[in-house]
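Chapter review: from sequence to fold.
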Amino acid sequence: MAEQERIQGTVKWFSNKKGYGFITTQDGADVFCHQTQVDCGDAYRSLNKGWVVEFNVEKDENDDNGKPKATHVTAVGGGPCTGPGGKKSTRRKQHATKRTNNRAAAAASSSSPPWHDLLEDHVKSVLHNVKQISTETGTLDVSVDKTVKVKLGTAGYASMAHADGIVAEGTFTCNPEGTVSLHWARAISFQNGDWQTTSVNDNDGLLLSTFSLVDDNVERVGRNETPATLWGSDKPNPRKALEANGFQMRKVYLQRFGRNR
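The token string follows.
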């Protein structure tokens, strides 16, 4: 089965009253999006015109012509899209979020190539032909030593999930030879039965600081890998700890939705 890749697009319009809207892909196609497919974390499911989002495209089984529809709609690189809310006490924060998303949309829609487009040809060849890691979108999901899952997203965004129950978020740089340098800004770890704040400098070297995309210990994330398969089903969803510690993401995704091969 061919690998289904995450697609980036810009919200053309979205109606909260109707419960749906359309997203325009980078190829210019308009894709139907239902409200139930939008990830807004704990906020009201909604999208704003001009937002840049990431999603899967599937055929609508309820449509006789099998028209495409957007599924698993998230912010670019994963995490929730924050829609408008109704509480007066939160409107100022929501307006600030809207401005941030609009700026992100403007930046993402520019003509700048994705970060991995600057990789040397032999590095791209290893990713495509040896490791079967796609570079068709702005995000790469890789597994390092089978115990660390790293997301390298747009605008230098990076996140990491470790088998020992650690989640970190920060930034990264990558040179043309494929050497990735990671700079962690915040982290949580599972301790004493709960997710707790932890120092990015106090994890016994478990927070990955650098690796090479062409190393043998770097692989694509498996199609069936989830947080439960990584660190065990005994650990609860870290959403509350992510929110409390200012993480951009609100849910841990080891891979983009629908990555199959």
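Two observations follow directly from the output. The helical segments are 91-108, 121-130, 227-231, 239-244. Residues 209 and 249 are 20 Å apart (CA to CA).
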